[in-house]
């Protein structure tokens, strides 16, 4: 058996889209939260919970989160649900709709197209699972909650 007979490993099931790297993740997070902070609905919600001087820490955490999602870096080790459950009526349908309405165009603008689709699909799944968990917590009929996308 020669070296050329050795089968090559199977192609990755989840190839990294072209142009998707830590710099792209940084661009996504910083552009998105700059827009969130200026948004009439979401800005005050974030502003009320993240002090001005705590933003760099929040942004670094969100870079870790998106790096783990998109680049499988494993850097984020937090639990995303509890702070969202604690938001009460500030995490309702209008807020999730606005969050996604800001996130989708930002991802399409700053990421390569395949990466943007991955990021949007992940955000939609997480938003849906937050809505389910929040509805369940409130004793609502969660079968009424429809997924995005
Ligand atoms: C209604 C829409 C949303 C609102 C108002 C919201 C608000 C917030 C706020 C205020 C924090 C900071 C909490 C704190 O440090 O005390 C936070 C953290 C976070 N958010 Fe959201 N969020 C929303 C949707 C989402 C979605 C859709 C995702 C996922 C794609 C997400 C992912 C995260 C993550 C990973 C953290 C960090 C949690 C941790 O480990 O501390 N959020 N969010």
Explain what this protein looks like in three dimensions.
- This protein is an all-alpha fold.
- The protein has a single domain, classed as Globin-like (Orthogonal Bundle), CATH 1.10.490.10.
- Helix content is 60%, strand content 0%.
- It has six helices and no strands.
- Helix 1 crosses helix 2 (42-49) and helix 1 packs across helix 3 (55-71).
- The mean pLDDT is 92.
- Protoporphyrin IX containing FE is lined by residues 42, 45-46, 49-50, 61, 65, 78, 80, 83-84, 87, 90-91, 95-96, 99, 123, 126-127.
- Residues 42, 45-46, 49-50, 61, 65, 78, 80, 83-84, 87, 90-91, 95-96, 99, 123, 126-127 line the site of protoporphyrin IX containing FE.
Quick synopsis:
InterPro entries: Globin-like_sf (IPR009050), Globin/Proto (IPR012292). With 149 residues, the protein is mainly alpha-helical. The protein has helices spanning 22-38, 42-49, 55-71, 81-85, 93-110, 113-137.
Q: What is the terminal separation in angstroms?
A: 50 Å
Ligands, deduplicated: protoporphyrin IX containing FE
CATH architecture annotation name: Orthogonal Bundle
What coarse outline follows from CA principal-axis ratios?
Answer: globular
The DSSP helix count reads 6
Q: What is the C-level CATH assignment?
A: Mainly Alpha
The helix-strand sequence is HHHHHH
CATH topology: Globin-like
Number of DSSP-assigned strands: 0
Biggest sheet overview: none
- Number of domain modules: 1
- Alpha-beta content class: mainly alpha
How much is the radius of gyration in Å? 18 Å
Name of the CATH homologous superfamily: Globins
Question: How much helical structure, as a percent, in the residues?
Answer: 55-70%
Uncertain stretches of 5 or more adjacent residues: none
What oligomeric state is this? Answer: single chain
Beta-strand residue percentage: under 5%
Taking all residues together, what is the mean pLDDT? 92
Protein name: Hemoglobin
InterPro entries: Globin-like_sf, Globin/Proto
GO molecular function: heme binding; oxygen binding
């Amino acid at each position: 058996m020669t070296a050329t007979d050795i089968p090559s490993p199977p192609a990755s099931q989840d190839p990294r889209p072209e142009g998707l790297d830590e710099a792209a993740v940084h661009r996504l997070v910083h552009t998105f939260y700059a827009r969130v902070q200026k948004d009439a609905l979401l800005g005050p919600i974030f502003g009320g919970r993240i002090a001005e001087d705590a933003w760099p820490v929040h942004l670094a955490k969100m870079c870790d989160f998106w790096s783990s999602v998109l680049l499988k870096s494993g850097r984020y080790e937090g639990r995303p649900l509890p702070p969202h459950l604690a938001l009460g009526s500030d995490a309702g349908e209008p807020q999730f709709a606005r969050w996604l309405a800001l996130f989708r165009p930002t991802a399409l603008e700053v990421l390569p197209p395949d990466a943007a689709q991955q990021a949007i699909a992940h955000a939609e799944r997480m938003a849906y699972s937050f809505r389910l968990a929040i509805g369940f917590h409130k004793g609502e009929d969660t079968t009424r909650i429809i997924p995005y996308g």
